[in-house]
Amino acid sequence: MDAAALLLSGAGAGLLAGGTTCAAVQLGLLTGAVRGAPPGGARPRDAVVPVAAFLAAKLVVHTALGALLGLVGAALQPGPRVRGLLLVLAASLLVLFALDLMGARWARRLLRRDRSAADTGHCAPRPGGMRRPAVLGAATVLVPCGLTLSAEMLAVASRSPVGGAAVMAGFVLGTVPLFGLLGVTLGRALALLRGRLTALAGVALLAVAAWTATSGLRLAGWAPSAGAAGTDRAVRTDSVRTDAAGVQEVTVWALDRGYRPALVTARAGVRTVLVVRTAGTRGHTRAFTIPGRGLDVALPASGETRIDLGAPGPGRMRFVCASGHYPGTITFR
């Protein structure tokens, strides 16, 4: 695939699905970028400038990452547990911004918010006030959503710094419309609601923080297993078969909204192959992760992917999409 095709491929993924999934994961960073706009932030320009700085920094950093991935390969990609920890840290940042919105003075002091132009009587933000949006935009590279990971895998597969840069730049550009709209709307809303309903926005951010932290714990393999006691009624065994060579095959479908079945029981101590099937799947379930093995697999939109699990002993093997949203468990007995 040449650079132009990779750019278009990345842009299509970002535009069609990446914006929503990445916005959910990176909402805390985006909120921090637009938080603290001047009371005149209801003006379009005051809301657009920090969002533009955020997105520009995000584009530069992801393009550079794509070039590095194309040059040296997957060695630069953090494993599931590292990404899970980063998601938990992102959730902590969300909590901090939420407490700031709710009026916690210690959170406000800790964030050391940039002084806006309104504090100095000027009409436009000072250049230094763009530092925080740019830093937070660059930090999005540390909390990738599932489709970002898929784009990174495509950058690795390109085996070219130009191709890797193209696919990551295209992906970020594809997410710009939604991120831009969300950022401007959020910034203007926070400015208009200053001192009125910001506590309500803080509560909403706390809910997103809880969801993000749960996703991180799942991705790292630290969350309670979905196959815990009391859920045996939901366990499926009809997706398990043994071929003529005695190899056990466990079949799971990756759908746009999760994996089916999500709970499976299989025999322990025999060679097992996990078969993950897709049929027109476009969601981030295509970035398939087994946290306990540190394994990430990029699934095709349609097709069959076979993963050799060896001969697992008794216990539970968790799997999840690479953003931690859709979990599943195979219980070996």
UniProtKB/TrEMBL annotation:
The chain crosses the membrane at residues 48-72, 84-107, 134-155, 167-191, 197-217. Residues 242-331 form the EfeO-type cupredoxin-like domain. InterPro entries: Cupredoxin, EfeO_Cupredoxin, UreH-like_TM_dom. Residues 14-210 form the Urease accessory protein UreH-like transmembrane domain. The keyword Membrane applies. Keywords: Membrane, Transmembrane, Transmembrane helix. PANTHER family: HEAVY METAL TRANSPORTER, HEAVY METAL TRANSPORTER-RELATED. This is Sulfite exporter TauE/SafE. The lineage of its organism: Bacteria, Bacillati, Actinomycetota, Actinomycetes, Streptosporangiales.
